[in-house]
């Protein structure tokens, strides 16, 4: 059974190119270490809600877009092994103060499948 890490974050529109470059590099590294799939998506039809929404969740500011991303693994055990390798990979070491997004507003977590068709 597979396992998924999910992420939602806000990216300044003027930093999208830098984020795309970082995401491509990160995705290649995750895949190299054993991830099954790596997806980075940008809002297309995302509206603020009355009670909750993606923009509200990340405290979206003017000039920002919502990103929704996920990484698929074979299992939770594989995910833990892969993430340990990725986090210690020197190619991914970066100064978070210079990251192309505000990491304090990133939402993330691990998910086990409930329905897979």
Strand order of the largest sheet: 2-3-1-4
Structural class: alpha+beta
Overall pLDDT:
94
- Provide the β-strand percentage band: 25-35%
Name of the CATH class? Alpha Beta
The total domain count is 1
Task: Give the number of helices.
Answer: 3
Percentage of residues in helical conformation:
25-40%
Contiguous uncertain segments of 5+ residues: none
Total strand count, please?
4
Radius of gyration: 15 Å
Query: Largest sheet, described in full?
Result: 4 strands, antiparallel
Shape: globular
Structure description:
The structure is a single chain. 29% of the residues lie in helices and 26% in strands. The protein is α+β, with helices and mostly antiparallel strands and 117 residues long. It has helices at 16-32, 54-57, 76-88; strands at residues 3-12, 37-42, 64-73, 107-111. A 4-stranded antiparallel β-sheet has the order 2-3-1-4. The mean pLDDT is 94. It has one domain: Alpha-Beta Plaits (2-Layer Sandwich), CATH 3.30.70.100. The longest helix has 17 residues, at 16-32.
């Amino acid at each position: 059974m597979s396992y998924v890490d999910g992420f939602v974050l806000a990216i300044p529109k003027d930093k999208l190119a830098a984020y795309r470059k970082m995401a491509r590099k990160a995705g290649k590294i995750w895949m190299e270490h054993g991830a099954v799939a790596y997806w980075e998506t940008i809002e297309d039809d995302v509206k603020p809600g009355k009670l909750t929404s993606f923009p509200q969740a990340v405290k979206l500011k003017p000039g920002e877009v919502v990103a929704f991303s996920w990484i698929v693994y074979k299992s939770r055990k594989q995910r833990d092994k892969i993430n340990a390798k990725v986090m210690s990979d020197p190619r991914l070491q970066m100064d978070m103060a210079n990251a192309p997004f505000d990491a304090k507003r990133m939402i993330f977590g691990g998910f086990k499948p409930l329905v897979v068709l």
